[in-house]
C-alpha cells in the first residue's frame, strides 16, 4: 500500500515549488500536490512545477483550496459556474502535467447544515459533467468527506457513488471524526471506489495532531483496509500548526509506514 505526504503539510513552511526536494530528502516517494492560491493554478506555474519531477517522486493526486471556487461549480448562475469551471480546468491541467491520476475534490459547502433532504440526482448530474471535463485531462475526481461540505456523512457518500459511477472517493480521518463517524463507515460506504485516505490525528481534546500523536488507531485503519482488499494511497495531510520542525513530520511518516507494515503482518 502506498504511503505519502501531501505538500499541504508544508504550508507556510516551504513554498510549493520547494516541497519535492524536501519530500525526497525524507524518503517519501508519493505525494498529493496542494495548489493553495490562484497564481498556483496558472499554466506557467504548473509547467514549472512539473519540470521539477525527476521520476523519484510520484504525484498521486492534486488538490485545490476548494473554498476559492469549488462550491461555485454548483451555482444556479451560469456565469458563476462558467467562471469557476475555468479554475477547475486549470487544476485539472496541473494534475495532468504533474502526472496525477486523481483530483481530491471537496465540492459544495454546507456550513449551515441544511435540514432539507439532499437531492442526489441534481448533484450527480453536475458531477457527471465535471467528471467528463476532468477526464479530458486524464484526471478522475475523488470526492472527499469534508465535515463542512455537502457529502459529510457515509450515507451521502454512498448515495453519490451509486448515482455517479464516474467518481471515486477520498476519505479523510479527521473529517470523519469531526463529522461524528468512525472512518471505517465511510470506507465501507465507498468500497472499491476509495483511492485516497488523508491522515491527520485527533487528540482527546479534538485538536489535530501528526499521525501517532493523537488518539486514532492507525494500525487498525491499515488492518481494515487490508482485510477489505483495498489499496488506496494513504497520505499525511498535516497542518503547519501541528509541528515545528520537518524532522517531526518525517518521524510521523515513518511511524505511519510502520503501522502499515505491522498491520500487513497481522
From TrEMBL:
Protein name as annotated: Sugar phosphate isomerase/epimerase
Chain ranges of the Xylose isomerase-like TIM barrel domain: 20-256
Domain of life: Bacteria
Stored Pfam families: AP_endonuc_2
Keywords: Isomerase
Example GO molecular function: isomerase activity
